Amino acid sequence: MAFDPGAHKCLDRGVRDWLLENTGLELGRLEQVHTARRSGAGGGIGEPCSALSIGFLGLVPPQQRTSVTQGTWRRCLDFMPWEDRRRRGGLTGHERVGQLLLDRLQSSTLVGEHALERQSRRVRTAFGLDSTAWEETSTLERCDLVHKLGPHLSEPNSVAYVDGLAGETLTSVRMVPDHLQILAAALGRLRARLRVRPIAVDLVPPVFTLLDLQRSSEAILGPSLHKQNFRRYVEGAGVIEATGTMRQQTGGRPAQLFRFRREGVSERRLAVRRHAATGTLQRA
Fold first, then answer.
1. 34 bridge partner residues
2. How many CB atoms within 10 Å of residue 260?
3. Position 121 pLDDT exceeds 80
4. Cα dihedral sign for 93, 94, 97, 102?
5. Contacts (Cβ under 8 Å, ≥6 apart) of 246
6. Which of 108, 160, 191, 255 keeps 20 to 30 A from 15, CA to CA?
7. For residue 262, what is the domain's CATH number?
């Protein structure tokens, strides 16, 4: 979209108006997550021109997600399969792509010994290889490495890594590089937000099952979560309460329905701020 100072009081308003006009969607939470300069964006003859590319993260209320008549919803992990930590077959998505990048570095004749060691260490750190701790918010770092060392991963249906198991492959969906950077920045911001507030408040219906909440969290974080541990965590956080009603499920037991305690959400935010202020914030 192009920002029109005469029509839009602020960038946020411009984004909301543009999206409403083109998709019919009204955004809930909206925040700026990425800013970059793009050269050669349409100046006059002989006149260099630059454009400012600004990316936003916007959350769409669940009740609106079925109202889009044109286009389809896509999983962000379809475009960044290396952020998917759910295990399928022998390796997870991040392990496969990380190993692919290491293999590329090792086989390259254009990288010196010191550069090879530095780049290999960077890949291992970013992709959590060789017992290195995985940092879920380092999405832009991983996106940058994939773009520099594995540009073919941006091609449609390209094979990123073939596991030892027959037919076990990983594919990605094409996206313009700077758009992919914006998507990576948005996912990283969403994961960071999940550390300090139950962002799933904005991603599930007003009444939901614990499985609904777990799947929303997995879609953000990447890995599969342990069902019982997740249940204990959200119930212990004091941000949900039972509605006293059940949802009848096909082929299974009725599932208990919950809703968010708005006062519980506020209490959790306050507790996080207090811990952060004293340097004792711990990830659950």
1. 55
2. 20
3. yes
4. negative
5. 254, 255, 256, 257
6. 191
7. 1.10.10.10
| Position with higher pLDDT, 198 vs 46 | 198
Q: Print the SS3 string covering 1-61.
A: CCCCCCCCCCHHHHHHHHHHHHHCCCCCCEEEEEEEEEECCCCCCCCCCEEEEEEEEECCC
Phi, psi of 152 (to 5 degrees): -65, -15
Burial readout 121-142 (b: 16 or more C-beta within 10 A, e: otherwise): ebbbbbbbbeeeeeebebbbbb
pLDDT greater than 70 at residue 253: yes
Same domain flag for 54 and 99: no
Task: Give the side-chain half-sphere CA count within 13 A for 77.
Answer: 16
Give the pLDDT confidence score for residue 284 in this predicted structure: 35
In a domain, 218, yes or no: yes
| Structure tokens belonging to residue 268 | 């959790």
CA–CA distance from 244 to each of 31, 240, 249 (Å)?
35, 12, 16
pLDDT tens digits, one per residue of 186-244: 999 999 988 777 677 778 888 999 988 888 888 888 777 888 998 888 888 788 889 98
* Separation CA 29–CA 62 (nearest Å): 12
Number of domains comprising the chain:
3
> Is residue 190 a part of any domain in this protein?
no
**Total-model pTM:** 0.77
Q: Six-digit token pair at 248? A: 């009848």
Q: Quick one: 113 and 154 in the same domain?
A: yes
